[in-house]
Amino acid sequence: MTGSVHRDDVRRLMAQGAQLVEVLPAAEYEDEHLPGAISIPLKTLGPETIAGLDRARPVIVYCWDGL
Amino acid sequence: MSPRAACRLETLGFSTVFDYTAGKTDWLAAGLPTEGAAVPPLRPGAVARTGVPTCTPDDTVATARRRVAASGEDRCIVTAGDGVVLGVLDQAALAGDDHALAVDAMRAGPPTVRAHEDLHELVGRMHERKAVAILVTDPEGRLRGLLHRDDADAALAHARDDEAGGKSA
Question: What is the model's pTM?
Answer without folding.
Answer: 0.86
